[in-house]
Design a protein that fits this description.
This protein has 15 helices and 13 strands. The protein has 360 residues and is an alpha/beta fold. The model has no long low-confidence stretch (mean pLDDT 97). Bound molecules: uridine-diphosphate-N-acetylglucosamine. Uridine-diphosphate-N-acetylglucosamine binds next to helix 1, helix 5 and helix 10.
Length: 360
Amino acid sequence: MKLIHVVGTRPNFMKIAPIMRVAYKYESIEQILVHTGQHYDDYMSRWFFEELGITEPNVNLKVGSGTHGEQTGEIMKRFERFLIEEGGDVILVVGDVNSTIACGLVASKLHIPLAHVEAGLRSFDRRMPEEINRLLTDAISDYLFTPAEEANMNLKAEGIPEEKIYLVGDVMIDTLIWEMERTQKLDEPPFEDLKNREYAVLTLHRPSNVDVPETFRGIMKALNTIAEDIEIIFPAHPRTKNRMKEFQIYPENDNIRITDPLSYRDFLKLYKNSIFVLTDSGSIQQETTYLNIPCLTIRENTERPFTISKGTNILVGVGPEKIVVESKKILDGEVKKSKGFPLWDGKSAERIVEILYKDF
Ligand code: UD1
């Protein structure tokens, strides 16, 4: 079986890694890793491969940044050229980024079976580019590997035939479990001066939060207030850094520390030892739920509602008041506890590879 994996952005690497590591064990599976180049800075891309135990990409399409149309179109052009020459038995795409839908469309039009990992998640907010990417990728996929029962229900409601849907659990949690077994001094933060200190962690990069100056200003106002009570460590995404400069939105409180994006391992050590996390990321909502760390999600909706109903996540919206109120509650000791998820057992990738292997 010739299995072509596609990655493009930082969160894709953590999702593909456990699948590749399992597939390495099968002699008759040939794996090709294609990087679209959607993310290209070393700290958004190159650093992760060795750390996650997978090879450097075999091919880099080097598309870089651009508008949605430019980026998606350019990935399609370059991936199509690659795929016609290289061929493949299955194309495996992960998550919900522009690289996912672009390569999915190419595979589907070349009649090569398409597998989508993390299928069926829905925020029901079609203004988010990721929601469109999810809907369309699922509509054209032949194998839909879902992380939770809710995802199966969403797909069935959209009329996707049941025989295409496989509930396998979460590959992001596979990576988390794998990394926790390997990481030394997991109970120490990655910065010496944070040892034995209480701090919160922040990540922020959604266009709906950082590309709209009024929204971004409101969030920063909330952060300045929270920082009166606790230090906030903020590894900033390049998009966010660009917008800060463009809109001149900077923290006013020295208790907010901006760092470059961290490696997977350092970021794990950072949030694992924090009091709570503020984020607009998708995966961090799950990782904090798995580790029982309180998480406040700075968004109006989430495609992972199970982290709210059964986990440590609270949706706080983007207005400053609720962000501050919920942070204070956590600091006062009012925290949610995670109920656990049966399929978050570190074996999702094994289930995926077995299913594909049997069919090819
Ligand atoms: C993309 C995904 C988003 C995901 C995020 C993870 C889409 C539509 N969005 O958003 O779902 O949560 O990745 O990080 O696919 N830039 C750099 N260096 C890089 C990459 C980006 O400087 O290596 C800057 C560029 O100015 C670029 C901007 O960040 O214009 C945004 O990058 P882009 O790939 O368009 O989307 P993300 O915001 O990273």
